[in-house]
Amino acid sequence: MSKHEHISMSVIRRLPRYYRFLSFLIESDVMRISSKELSEKMGITASQIRQDLNCFGGFGQQGYGYIVEDLQKAIGEILGLNNLKKTVVIGAGNIGRVVATHMIFENQGFKMIGIFDKNERLIGESIRGIRIDDSASLEKFCNENHPSVAALCIPKEDVPEIIDRLIALGIKAFWNFSHYDILVKYPDVAVENVHLNDSLMTLSYKSNDL
Amino acid sequence: MSKHEHISMSVIRRLPRYYRFLSFLIESDVMRISSKELSEKMGITASQIRQDLNCFGGFGQQGYGYIVEDLQKAIGEILGLNNLKKTVVIGAGNIGRVVATHMIFENQGFKMIGIFDKNERLIGESIRGIRIDDSASLEKFCNENHPSVAALCIPKEDVPEIIDRLIALGIKAFWNFSHYDILVKYPDVAVENVHLNDSLMTLSYKSNDL
DNA sequence: TAGATTGTTAATCGATTAACAATC
DNA sequence: TAGATTGTTAATCGATTAACAATC
Hints:
The structure is a homodimer of 210-residue chains.
Chain A: H1 9-27, E1 32-33, H2 35-42, H3 46-53, E2 66-67, H4 68-79, E3 85-90, H5 94-103, E4 110-117, E5 126-127, E6 130-134, H6 138-145, E7 149-152, H7 159-168, E8 173-176, E9 190-193, H8 196-206
Parallel strand pairs in A: 3-4, 3-7, 4-6, 7-8, 8-9
Antiparallel strand pairs in A: 1-2, 5-6
Chain A binds a DNA duplex (24 and 24 nucleotides) through helix 3.
Protein backbone atom coordinates (compact mmCIF):
# COMPACT_ATOMS: atom_id res chain seq x y z
CA MET A 1 0.00 0.00 0.00
CA SER A 2 2.82 2.41 0.78
CA LYS A 3 5.20 1.26 -1.94
CA HIS A 4 3.25 3.19 -4.57
CA GLU A 5 4.81 6.63 -4.41
CA HIS A 6 3.61 9.70 -6.28
CA ILE A 7 0.33 8.52 -7.70
CA SER A 8 -1.52 11.58 -8.95
CA MET A 9 -4.84 12.57 -7.43
CA SER A 10 -6.42 12.33 -10.89
CA VAL A 11 -5.81 8.60 -10.75
CA ILE A 12 -6.82 8.21 -7.10
CA ARG A 13 -10.13 9.97 -7.62
CA ARG A 14 -11.05 7.45 -10.31
CA LEU A 15 -10.42 4.45 -8.06
CA PRO A 16 -13.69 4.69 -6.09
CA ARG A 17 -15.54 4.82 -9.38
CA TYR A 18 -13.79 1.68 -10.62
CA TYR A 19 -14.60 0.09 -7.29
CA ARG A 20 -18.28 0.95 -7.65
CA PHE A 21 -18.56 -0.37 -11.21
CA LEU A 22 -16.72 -3.55 -10.30
CA SER A 23 -19.04 -4.06 -7.33
CA PHE A 24 -22.03 -3.79 -9.69
CA LEU A 25 -20.44 -6.38 -11.98
CA ILE A 26 -19.97 -8.73 -9.05
CA GLU A 27 -23.66 -8.31 -8.16
CA SER A 28 -24.48 -9.23 -11.76
CA ASP A 29 -22.27 -12.34 -11.56
CA VAL A 30 -19.79 -11.11 -14.15
CA MET A 31 -16.53 -13.00 -13.62
CA ARG A 32 -14.10 -11.35 -16.02
CA ILE A 33 -13.97 -8.11 -17.99
CA SER A 34 -11.60 -6.51 -20.48
CA SER A 35 -10.50 -2.89 -20.27
CA LYS A 36 -12.44 -2.32 -23.47
CA GLU A 37 -15.75 -3.58 -22.09
CA LEU A 38 -15.28 -1.68 -18.85
CA SER A 39 -14.38 1.50 -20.73
CA GLU A 40 -17.66 1.33 -22.63
CA LYS A 41 -19.67 0.92 -19.44
CA MET A 42 -17.86 3.75 -17.67
CA GLY A 43 -17.53 6.20 -20.52
CA ILE A 44 -13.73 6.51 -20.37
CA THR A 45 -10.96 5.09 -22.58
CA ALA A 46 -9.60 1.56 -22.21
CA SER A 47 -6.15 3.06 -22.35
CA GLN A 48 -6.82 5.14 -19.28
CA ILE A 49 -8.11 2.16 -17.35
CA ARG A 50 -5.00 0.12 -18.10
CA GLN A 51 -2.76 3.09 -17.38
CA ASP A 52 -4.50 3.73 -14.05
CA LEU A 53 -4.39 0.12 -12.90
CA ASN A 54 -0.76 -0.29 -13.83
CA CYS A 55 0.17 2.44 -11.36
CA PHE A 56 -0.38 -0.26 -8.78
CA GLY A 57 0.78 -3.38 -10.58
CA GLY A 58 -0.40 -5.84 -13.20
CA PHE A 59 -3.83 -7.05 -12.17
CA GLY A 60 -4.77 -8.37 -15.58
CA GLN A 61 -3.81 -11.21 -17.84
CA GLN A 62 -2.87 -10.72 -21.48
CA GLY A 63 -5.40 -12.09 -23.91
CA TYR A 64 -7.93 -12.56 -21.12
CA GLY A 65 -8.67 -9.38 -19.20
CA TYR A 66 -9.27 -8.80 -15.52
CA ILE A 67 -10.93 -11.05 -12.96
CA VAL A 68 -13.64 -8.80 -11.58
CA GLU A 69 -13.62 -9.98 -7.99
CA ASP A 70 -9.84 -9.92 -7.64
CA LEU A 71 -9.60 -6.48 -9.15
CA GLN A 72 -12.33 -5.09 -6.90
CA LYS A 73 -10.60 -6.51 -3.84
CA ALA A 74 -7.26 -5.10 -4.94
CA ILE A 75 -8.68 -1.61 -5.43
CA GLY A 76 -10.43 -1.82 -2.06
CA GLU A 77 -7.09 -2.61 -0.51
CA ILE A 78 -5.35 0.29 -2.26
CA LEU A 79 -8.08 2.60 -0.96
CA GLY A 80 -7.60 1.15 2.52
CA LEU A 81 -11.22 0.07 2.94
CA ASN A 82 -10.22 -2.98 4.96
CA ASN A 83 -8.36 -0.85 7.48
CA LEU A 84 -11.05 0.44 9.86
CA LYS A 85 -10.47 4.03 10.95
CA LYS A 86 -12.13 5.21 14.16
CA THR A 87 -14.30 8.17 13.27
CA VAL A 88 -16.17 10.87 15.13
CA VAL A 89 -18.96 12.99 13.71
CA ILE A 90 -18.90 16.61 14.85
CA GLY A 91 -22.32 18.21 14.62
CA ALA A 92 -25.64 16.36 14.83
CA GLY A 93 -27.79 18.73 12.81
CA ASN A 94 -29.39 17.71 9.53
CA ILE A 95 -26.19 17.03 7.67
CA GLY A 96 -24.53 15.37 10.65
CA ARG A 97 -27.48 13.03 10.91
CA VAL A 98 -27.29 11.99 7.28
CA VAL A 99 -23.57 11.43 7.58
CA ALA A 100 -23.94 9.43 10.78
CA THR A 101 -26.89 7.45 9.49
CA HIS A 102 -25.98 6.82 5.87
CA MET A 103 -22.41 7.65 5.08
CA ILE A 104 -20.01 6.21 7.55
CA PHE A 105 -20.00 2.48 7.12
CA GLU A 106 -17.55 -0.19 7.99
CA ASN A 107 -17.40 -1.57 4.47
CA GLN A 108 -15.88 1.75 3.47
CA GLY A 109 -13.05 1.75 5.96
CA PHE A 110 -14.59 3.88 8.69
CA LYS A 111 -16.10 2.95 12.05
CA MET A 112 -18.15 5.61 13.78
CA ILE A 113 -17.35 5.63 17.48
CA GLY A 114 -18.74 8.98 18.58
CA ILE A 115 -21.09 11.86 17.72
CA PHE A 116 -20.78 15.30 19.25
CA ASP A 117 -22.82 18.47 19.38
CA LYS A 118 -22.82 21.55 21.56
CA ASN A 119 -26.61 21.89 21.47
CA GLU A 120 -27.96 20.61 24.79
CA ARG A 121 -31.26 19.57 23.28
CA LEU A 122 -29.54 17.00 21.05
CA ILE A 123 -27.16 15.58 23.66
CA GLY A 124 -28.40 12.23 24.88
CA GLU A 125 -30.17 11.22 21.67
CA SER A 126 -28.82 8.20 19.82
CA ILE A 127 -28.03 7.57 16.15
CA ARG A 128 -27.30 4.00 15.08
CA GLY A 129 -26.76 3.07 18.70
CA ILE A 130 -24.31 5.86 19.42
CA ARG A 131 -25.14 8.53 21.96
CA ILE A 132 -24.75 12.17 20.97
CA ASP A 133 -22.27 13.64 23.42
CA ASP A 134 -21.39 17.16 24.48
CA SER A 135 -18.64 18.70 22.32
CA ALA A 136 -17.05 19.86 25.55
CA SER A 137 -16.20 16.25 26.33
CA LEU A 138 -14.20 15.73 23.13
CA GLU A 139 -10.88 15.95 24.98
CA LYS A 140 -11.79 13.21 27.42
CA PHE A 141 -13.29 11.02 24.71
CA CYS A 142 -10.36 11.30 22.31
CA ASN A 143 -7.77 10.67 24.96
CA GLU A 144 -9.58 7.49 25.91
CA ASN A 145 -10.68 6.21 22.49
CA HIS A 146 -8.14 7.64 20.01
CA PRO A 147 -10.25 8.34 16.91
CA SER A 148 -8.20 9.29 13.83
CA VAL A 149 -10.89 10.76 11.56
CA ALA A 150 -13.49 13.49 12.04
CA ALA A 151 -16.48 14.36 9.86
CA LEU A 152 -17.19 18.07 10.30
CA CYS A 153 -20.89 18.89 10.02
CA ILE A 154 -20.94 22.24 11.79
CA PRO A 155 -21.34 25.88 10.75
CA LYS A 156 -18.29 27.49 9.20
CA GLU A 157 -17.70 29.89 12.07
CA ASP A 158 -17.11 26.95 14.45
CA VAL A 159 -14.60 25.19 12.23
CA PRO A 160 -11.25 26.92 12.87
CA GLU A 161 -11.45 26.40 16.63
CA ILE A 162 -12.57 22.78 16.44
CA ILE A 163 -9.88 21.88 13.91
CA ASP A 164 -7.12 23.08 16.20
CA ARG A 165 -8.61 21.12 19.08
CA LEU A 166 -9.01 17.95 17.03
CA ILE A 167 -5.52 18.09 15.56
CA ALA A 168 -4.13 18.53 19.06
CA LEU A 169 -6.13 15.42 20.02
CA GLY A 170 -4.52 13.34 17.27
CA ILE A 171 -7.14 13.50 14.50
CA LYS A 172 -5.35 12.93 11.19
CA ALA A 173 -8.13 13.18 8.60
CA PHE A 174 -11.09 15.49 8.08
CA TRP A 175 -14.20 14.97 6.00
CA ASN A 176 -15.39 18.53 5.81
CA PHE A 177 -19.03 19.39 5.04
CA SER A 178 -18.85 22.94 6.36
CA HIS A 179 -18.66 25.94 4.04
CA TYR A 180 -15.20 26.64 5.37
CA ASP A 181 -12.22 25.72 3.17
CA ILE A 182 -9.73 23.77 5.20
CA LEU A 183 -6.36 24.46 3.62
CA VAL A 184 -3.88 21.72 4.37
CA LYS A 185 -1.29 23.74 6.19
CA TYR A 186 -0.50 21.07 8.74
CA PRO A 187 1.79 18.23 7.65
CA ASP A 188 0.36 14.74 7.88
CA VAL A 189 -3.25 15.87 7.93
CA ALA A 190 -5.60 14.71 5.18
CA VAL A 191 -8.63 16.75 4.15
CA GLU A 192 -11.58 16.14 1.87
CA ASN A 193 -13.66 19.28 1.43
CA VAL A 194 -17.10 18.34 0.16
CA HIS A 195 -18.77 21.67 -0.75
CA LEU A 196 -22.13 20.62 -2.09
CA ASN A 197 -22.83 24.25 -2.90
CA ASP A 198 -19.99 24.30 -5.38
CA SER A 199 -21.45 21.27 -7.08
CA LEU A 200 -24.85 22.93 -7.30
CA MET A 201 -23.37 26.13 -8.73
CA THR A 202 -21.52 24.07 -11.32
CA LEU A 203 -24.84 22.52 -12.30
CA SER A 204 -26.26 26.02 -12.55
CA TYR A 205 -23.53 26.93 -15.04
CA LYS A 206 -23.99 23.75 -17.05
CA SER A 207 -27.71 24.32 -17.33
CA ASN A 208 -27.37 27.94 -18.45
CA ASP A 209 -27.49 27.30 -22.15
CA LEU A 210 -29.93 24.39 -22.32
CA MET B 1 -23.31 34.38 -20.65
CA SER B 2 -23.39 32.37 -23.87
CA LYS B 3 -20.63 34.21 -25.71
CA HIS B 4 -17.96 32.34 -23.74
CA GLU B 5 -17.46 29.21 -25.78
CA HIS B 6 -15.29 26.26 -24.82
CA ILE B 7 -14.36 27.11 -21.26
CA SER B 8 -12.85 24.01 -19.70
CA MET B 9 -14.50 22.34 -16.73
CA SER B 10 -11.29 22.81 -14.75
CA VAL B 11 -11.92 26.54 -14.87
CA ILE B 12 -15.66 26.29 -14.25
CA ARG B 13 -15.20 24.15 -11.15
CA ARG B 14 -13.01 26.84 -9.63
CA LEU B 15 -15.60 29.58 -10.10
CA PRO B 16 -17.82 28.62 -7.14
CA ARG B 17 -14.73 28.65 -4.96
CA TYR B 18 -13.80 32.15 -6.13
CA TYR B 19 -17.40 33.15 -5.50
CA ARG B 20 -17.25 31.83 -1.95
CA PHE B 21 -13.96 33.55 -1.09
CA LEU B 22 -15.15 36.81 -2.59
CA SER B 23 -18.37 36.58 -0.59
CA PHE B 24 -16.28 36.19 2.59
CA LEU B 25 -14.27 39.24 1.64
CA ILE B 26 -17.45 41.24 1.16
CA GLU B 27 -18.61 40.17 4.62
CA SER B 28 -15.28 41.42 5.95
CA ASP B 29 -15.71 44.76 4.18
CA VAL B 30 -12.74 44.26 1.87
CA MET B 31 -13.22 46.52 -1.15
CA ARG B 32 -10.38 45.56 -3.49
CA ILE B 33 -7.97 42.67 -3.81
CA SER B 34 -5.05 41.77 -6.07
CA SER B 35 -4.65 38.38 -7.66
CA LYS B 36 -1.57 37.93 -5.46
CA GLU B 37 -3.44 38.49 -2.18
CA LEU B 38 -6.32 36.28 -3.27
CA SER B 39 -3.92 33.56 -4.37
CA GLU B 40 -2.38 33.48 -0.90
CA LYS B 41 -5.77 33.16 0.77
CA MET B 42 -6.93 30.42 -1.57
CA GLY B 43 -3.73 28.45 -1.93
CA ILE B 44 -3.47 28.69 -5.72
CA THR B 45 -1.25 30.78 -7.99
CA ALA B 46 -2.00 34.38 -8.91
CA SER B 47 -1.31 33.43 -12.50
CA GLN B 48 -4.10 30.88 -12.46
CA ILE B 49 -6.57 33.37 -11.01
CA ARG B 50 -5.83 35.93 -13.72
CA GLN B 51 -5.89 33.26 -16.41
CA ASP B 52 -9.24 31.94 -15.15
CA LEU B 53 -10.89 35.35 -14.91
CA ASN B 54 -9.71 36.39 -18.34
CA CYS B 55 -11.64 33.55 -19.90
CA PHE B 56 -14.64 35.77 -19.30
CA GLY B 57 -13.18 39.24 -19.81
CA GLY B 58 -11.07 41.78 -18.02
CA PHE B 59 -12.59 42.36 -14.60
CA GLY B 60 -9.49 43.95 -13.11
CA GLN B 61 -7.62 47.17 -13.41
CA GLN B 62 -3.88 47.30 -14.00
CA GLY B 63 -1.91 48.60 -11.06
CA TYR B 64 -4.95 48.32 -8.80
CA GLY B 65 -6.44 44.86 -8.73
CA TYR B 66 -10.07 43.72 -8.64
CA ILE B 67 -13.07 45.36 -6.99
CA VAL B 68 -14.37 42.57 -4.78
CA GLU B 69 -18.07 43.26 -5.06
CA ASP B 70 -18.04 43.72 -8.82
CA LEU B 71 -16.04 40.56 -9.34
CA GLN B 72 -18.31 38.50 -7.10
CA LYS B 73 -21.38 39.76 -8.96
CA ALA B 74 -19.76 39.01 -12.32
CA ILE B 75 -18.91 35.44 -11.33
CA GLY B 76 -22.42 34.94 -9.94
CA GLU B 77 -23.76 36.00 -13.31
CA ILE B 78 -21.44 33.65 -15.21
CA LEU B 79 -22.64 30.83 -12.98
CA GLY B 80 -26.23 31.84 -13.66
CA LEU B 81 -27.15 32.33 -10.02
CA ASN B 82 -29.49 35.20 -10.85
CA ASN B 83 -31.47 33.05 -13.24
CA LEU B 84 -33.90 31.08 -11.05
CA LYS B 85 -34.39 27.51 -12.21
CA LYS B 86 -37.53 25.69 -11.09
CA THR B 87 -36.43 22.58 -9.26
CA VAL B 88 -38.07 19.40 -7.99
CA VAL B 89 -36.61 17.11 -5.35
CA ILE B 90 -37.20 13.42 -6.03
CA GLY B 91 -37.07 11.36 -2.85
CA ALA B 92 -37.86 12.68 0.64
CA GLY B 93 -35.75 10.29 2.68
CA ASN B 94 -32.83 11.49 4.78
CA ILE B 95 -30.79 12.87 1.92
CA GLY B 96 -33.80 14.35 0.16
CA ARG B 97 -34.69 16.18 3.35
CA VAL B 98 -31.24 17.70 3.72
CA VAL B 99 -31.26 18.75 0.08
CA ALA B 100 -34.74 20.24 0.35
CA THR B 101 -34.03 21.93 3.66
CA HIS B 102 -30.47 23.15 3.28
CA MET B 103 -29.22 22.94 -0.27
CA ILE B 104 -31.64 24.41 -2.72
CA PHE B 105 -31.76 28.12 -2.17
CA GLU B 106 -32.77 30.98 -4.34
CA ASN B 107 -29.48 32.81 -3.91
CA GLN B 108 -27.87 29.93 -5.72
CA GLY B 109 -30.05 30.01 -8.77
CA PHE B 110 -32.58 27.34 -7.88
CA LYS B 111 -36.16 27.60 -6.65
CA MET B 112 -37.68 24.45 -5.19
CA ILE B 113 -41.25 24.06 -6.41
CA GLY B 114 -41.98 20.42 -5.62
CA ILE B 115 -40.95 17.38 -3.58
CA PHE B 116 -41.91 13.85 -4.51
CA ASP B 117 -41.76 10.41 -2.93
CA LYS B 118 -43.46 7.10 -3.59
CA ASN B 119 -43.69 6.25 0.10
CA GLU B 120 -47.28 6.85 1.20
CA ARG B 121 -46.26 7.57 4.76
CA LEU B 122 -44.29 10.64 3.67
CA ILE B 123 -46.83 12.04 1.22
CA GLY B 124 -48.64 15.02 2.72
CA GLU B 125 -45.79 16.15 4.97
CA SER B 126 -44.29 19.54 4.26
CA ILE B 127 -40.70 20.77 3.99
CA ARG B 128 -40.09 24.52 3.87
CA GLY B 129 -43.73 25.04 3.02
CA ILE B 130 -43.80 22.56 0.17
CA ARG B 131 -45.99 19.49 0.35
CA ILE B 132 -44.45 16.10 -0.40
CA ASP B 133 -46.41 14.69 -3.31
CA ASP B 134 -46.84 11.23 -4.78
CA SER B 135 -44.23 10.39 -7.44
CA ALA B 136 -47.09 9.10 -9.53
CA SER B 137 -48.30 12.66 -9.99
CA LEU B 138 -45.03 13.87 -11.51
CA GLU B 139 -46.49 13.90 -15.02
CA LYS B 140 -49.39 16.12 -14.05
CA PHE B 141 -47.18 18.42 -11.97
CA CYS B 142 -44.50 18.89 -14.60
CA ASN B 143 -46.96 19.54 -17.37
CA GLU B 144 -48.52 22.28 -15.28
CA ASN B 145 -45.45 23.82 -13.65
CA HIS B 146 -42.55 23.11 -16.03
CA PRO B 147 -39.61 22.53 -13.68
CA SER B 148 -36.24 22.29 -15.46
CA VAL B 149 -34.06 20.76 -12.75
CA ALA B 150 -34.38 17.64 -10.60
CA ALA B 151 -32.39 16.63 -7.53
CA LEU B 152 -32.36 12.83 -7.36
CA CYS B 153 -32.31 11.53 -3.80
CA ILE B 154 -33.57 8.01 -4.40
CA PRO B 155 -32.05 4.50 -4.34
CA LYS B 156 -29.99 3.58 -7.38
CA GLU B 157 -32.40 0.94 -8.62
CA ASP B 158 -35.11 3.58 -9.09
CA VAL B 159 -32.93 5.98 -11.07
CA PRO B 160 -33.00 4.67 -14.68
CA GLU B 161 -36.80 4.66 -14.85
CA ILE B 162 -37.24 8.08 -13.26
CA ILE B 163 -34.63 9.68 -15.50
CA ASP B 164 -36.44 8.62 -18.62
CA ARG B 165 -39.70 9.94 -17.25
CA LEU B 166 -38.19 13.25 -16.19
CA ILE B 167 -36.39 13.82 -19.47
CA ALA B 168 -39.63 13.15 -21.31
CA LEU B 169 -41.22 15.77 -19.05
CA GLY B 170 -38.67 18.40 -20.04
CA ILE B 171 -36.18 18.25 -17.15
CA LYS B 172 -32.83 19.50 -18.45
CA ALA B 173 -30.52 19.18 -15.44
CA PHE B 174 -29.96 16.56 -12.76
CA TRP B 175 -28.27 16.89 -9.39
CA ASN B 176 -27.69 13.24 -8.66
CA PHE B 177 -27.15 11.96 -5.12
CA SER B 178 -27.91 8.33 -5.90
CA HIS B 179 -25.18 5.72 -6.21
CA TYR B 180 -26.03 5.36 -9.87
CA ASP B 181 -23.73 6.98 -12.43
CA ILE B 182 -25.75 9.02 -14.86
CA LEU B 183 -23.76 9.02 -18.08
CA VAL B 184 -24.66 11.96 -20.24
CA LYS B 185 -25.89 10.12 -23.28
CA TYR B 186 -28.71 12.52 -23.99
CA PRO B 187 -27.85 15.78 -25.75
CA ASP B 188 -28.74 18.97 -23.92
CA VAL B 189 -28.99 17.35 -20.52
CA ALA B 190 -26.68 18.50 -17.74
CA VAL B 191 -25.66 16.18 -14.90
CA GLU B 192 -23.80 16.66 -11.65
CA ASN B 193 -23.11 13.33 -9.97
CA VAL B 194 -22.32 13.91 -6.31
CA HIS B 195 -21.09 10.52 -5.00
CA LEU B 196 -20.26 11.25 -1.39
CA ASN B 197 -19.00 7.69 -1.08
CA ASP B 198 -16.27 8.37 -3.60
CA SER B 199 -15.16 11.36 -1.57
CA LEU B 200 -15.05 9.26 1.58
CA MET B 201 -13.02 6.53 -0.12
CA THR B 202 -10.60 9.16 -1.37
CA LEU B 203 -10.19 10.32 2.21
CA SER B 204 -9.55 6.73 3.17
CA TYR B 205 -6.72 6.56 0.66
CA LYS B 206 -5.25 9.87 1.76
CA SER B 207 -5.25 8.81 5.39
CA ASN B 208 -3.57 5.46 4.70
CA ASP B 209 -0.02 6.56 5.34
CA LEU B 210 -0.51 9.06 8.14
C1' DT C 1 -0.44 -21.99 -32.86
C1' DA C 2 -3.59 -17.89 -33.58
C1' DG C 3 -6.32 -14.48 -31.33
C1' DA C 4 -7.00 -11.50 -27.78
C1' DT C 5 -5.79 -8.27 -24.56
C1' DT C 6 -2.60 -6.66 -21.41
C1' DG C 7 1.52 -3.75 -19.87
C1' DT C 8 4.24 -0.06 -21.29
C1' DT C 9 6.46 3.30 -24.15
C1' DA C 10 5.82 7.22 -27.19
C1' DA C 11 2.88 11.02 -29.00
C1' DT C 12 -0.60 14.26 -28.18
C1' DC C 13 -3.24 17.15 -25.84
C1' DG C 14 -4.59 20.32 -22.25
C1' DA C 15 -3.79 22.78 -18.04
C1' DT C 16 -0.75 25.35 -15.14
C1' DT C 17 2.94 28.45 -14.38
C1' DA C 18 6.20 32.00 -15.68
C1' DA C 19 7.32 36.15 -17.88
C1' DC C 20 6.60 40.57 -19.48
C1' DA C 21 4.58 44.29 -22.10
C1' DA C 22 0.48 47.17 -21.51
C1' DT C 23 -1.65 50.41 -18.66
C1' DC C 24 -3.96 52.26 -14.71
C1' DT D 1 5.92 60.18 -13.51
C1' DA D 2 6.96 55.81 -10.92
C1' DG D 3 5.00 51.75 -8.94
C1' DA D 4 1.87 48.26 -9.07
C1' DT D 5 -0.73 44.87 -11.08
C1' DT D 6 -3.32 43.35 -14.80
C1' DG D 7 -4.02 40.92 -19.41
C1' DT D 8 -1.82 37.88 -22.40
C1' DT D 9 1.70 35.27 -24.70
C1' DA D 10 5.18 31.74 -24.26
C1' DA D 11 7.24 27.83 -21.68
C1' DT D 12 6.57 24.04 -18.78
C1' DC D 13 4.47 20.50 -16.81
C1' DG D 14 1.24 16.73 -16.29
C1' DA D 15 -2.47 13.88 -17.88
C1' DT D 16 -4.65 11.40 -21.56
C1' DT D 17 -4.60 8.82 -25.67
C1' DA D 18 -2.49 5.99 -29.20
C1' DA D 19 0.35 2.36 -30.58
C1' DC D 20 2.50 -1.87 -30.28
C1' DA D 21 5.46 -5.46 -28.48
C1' DA D 22 4.93 -8.93 -24.86
C1' DT D 23 2.41 -12.81 -23.52
C1' DC D 24 -1.43 -15.50 -21.93
